[in-house]
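Re: the request from the purification team.
They wanted to know what the chain is likely to look like in 3D before they choose a buffer screen. I agreed to run a prediction and write the result into the notebook, where they can find it.
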Amino acid sequence: MRDKIIGIAAIAVLAGFMGILLGFVPHLDLSIVVVVVVLMAAYDFYLMLFKNKNGG
């Protein structure tokens, strides 16, 4: 359970950092990259969270 909380906190910190970056450099192409990066991190966390534990 603690690893899930730490994972959610890490994604929140990543999103916060990227938000600050966008606040100082508001460009459309950077916004697209930031959204893709945060979505990829969230998707990876989702896969690790609901992955089948018995290898099947």
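For the purification team: Residues 2-49 form one domain.
Please add any questions underneath this entry.
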